[in-house]
Each structure stands twice: as structure tokens, then as C-alpha cells.
Amino acid sequence: MKPFTYERAVSVRSAAIAAAGNPQARFIAGGTNLLDLMKLQIEAPAHLIDVNGLGLDRIESSADGGLRIGAIVRNTDLAAHASVRRDYGLLSRALLAGASGQLRNKATTAGNLLQRTRCPYFYDTNMPCNKRQPGAGCSAIGGVTRQHAVVGGSQACIATHPSDMAVALRALDATVETMRADGRQRRIPIADFHRLPGDTPHIETSLERSELITAVTLPAPVGGTHIYRKVRDRASYAFALVSVAAIVQKDGSGRVALGGVAHKPWRVEKAEALLPLGARATTAALLEGARPTPENEFKITLAERTLAGVLAQAKG
């Protein structure tokens, strides 16, 4: 790990100003992903800005009947919160499907959204990776691709987004709140927060440099049956091959987002109109234009069968 300097921010604005004044600075809260990347020298910040003392650890009801989740609320606390368990069960289940108990005790809401891909070529600094070093090439293309994206990828990157929480937030129509160094605040719909790789896979979100996430908000509850089903290679502490986050209403309508299939949580709203027709029609619309490799084409069938299981569970 390379040497770095450190400061504890005293306000949200001062944290953003400090980051704006140092292009080599990074925010740190739980550090469950950043510290790993620093040890491997994939990330080598010259300065860390600790945002743990900024009062961003509260979960509050919002005026519109929704919920406002502070950026550094720990995953364990969020999963166990009474309002989340009662009204947004999808989110609680997704959180508990991710990582380990020890990691969930430290990991934060904002950090979960910002965690980097788990593509093995990204973590192997001996291999070219456009996400780690723009223009270097993508070792995954032509390499081992079982875990990689089947839809939304590009010739520059076919990595998948690893978060379970983000898939649930996509189905829940969450919004990400931020503050810039000039004091301006921004509300970013979760649909626009994560980017597809295109020719710039190293740019993963719509955040500007030094822009600090302050909260995630959820709209008023929509009812329905909330299900998160994750398929992985072992029962715990593994990333999704495919995951399905769904809210299913009594009439069969609802929402669905997929994890493990794309560079971002994958939701196609027009496909949701087909939910009453079943998993096959819905999955075909969700994954229209998919370009799997021979090693990961199984994900298309797996997504359909996982969604079928979710719809059957919702019927009771």
C-alpha cells in the first residue's frame, strides 16, 4: 500500500471542498472495498477524507411518505430497520444476501453503490483492463467469462456490477442525493446513477469528481410481495450469477430488476408489462439484444428460471 495522508471531515461541504482541491483524494467510510483495492494498488489515493463523522448515519421518514437513508448507514442497520423490513422488504432481503455479517457491519449505503466490479481481470494487475487502465484492453473478452455480462456490455468491458443492494434500489425507484463542492445539491434517479461501459468503462457512475453522496431516498411504499432471489456458486459470501429483485402485486403486475447480468443493475420497464404473461416472455424482453459468450449463455436460462421461481413464490 502506498503512503497517503488522512483527514476527518467536519462537514459535508468541507469534505466536498477538500476532495475538489485534491484530484488524488478519495472519500472513505466503511472502506470494505477501497482498502482492498489500495492493498492491490489498483487504487492509490494520495489523501483520504473520512466522512464517518458527518451525521449521515440516520434513517428518517420523508415528507412524501418515503424513507431517507443516510449515506453511511451500515448495511446491517439498514437491513434490520423496522420500516425497511415492513415496507421495503426487497431491500432488506437483498442486503442480507450480500457479503458476510462482518462486512455488512462496516459497509455503508453509499459505499455499496460505489463498489467496483469483481471481475478477476480487474483485480489482476498483471492483466490488461480498460476499467483499471483506460485503453489497455479487456482481458475478459476471449478469457474466462462465466461470471461476466450477457447484456449491455461493450468491446471495452463486459464486467458486471456486484451489488445486491443496488438491484433492489433499482426496483424500488430510489434516488441518490449528493452535494458538490460549490454547495449545490443534486438528486440522481438510480436509473441514471450507474453507467454502461461503452468506450469509457472506467467512468462507472454519473457522479462528478468530489461530489459526495449524502443519502438515498425511497418513494412511498407500493405494497405488493417483495422478493429477492440470488443464485450463486455457494450458499453464502459469493456474488450473484443471476439475481432477481421483484415486487409483485396481486393482479400479477409489478416490477423486476436483474443482477449479475450487466454492468449495472438491469431493469427494462417496458418488459414489466409482460409479467402477467410469465417468466419466459418477461425475460425475453428484459434480455433482448443479449450477447452472451459460450461460457455464460446459461445466465439467460438461469434468469428465466429464477424469475419463474419468484413469480411462483409470489402467488403463494
UniProtKB/TrEMBL annotation:
Gene3D superfamilies reported in the protein's UniProt record: 3.30.465.10, CO dehydrogenase flavoprotein, C-terminal domain, Uridine Diphospho-n-acetylenolpyruvylglucosamine Reductase, domain 2
UniProt GO molecular function: FAD binding; oxidoreductase activity
Keywords assigned: FAD, Flavoprotein
Classification via SUPFAM superfamilies: CO dehydrogenase flavoprotein C-terminal domain-like (SSF55447), FAD-binding/transporter-associated domain-like (SSF56176)
Positions of the FAD-binding PCMH-type domain: 1-223
Top-rank taxon: Bacteria
Annotated PANTHER family: ALDEHYDE OXIDOREDUCTASE FAD-BINDING SUBUNIT PAOB, XANTHINE DEHYDROGENASE SUBUNIT C-RELATED
Name of this chain's protein: Xanthine dehydrogenase family protein subunit M
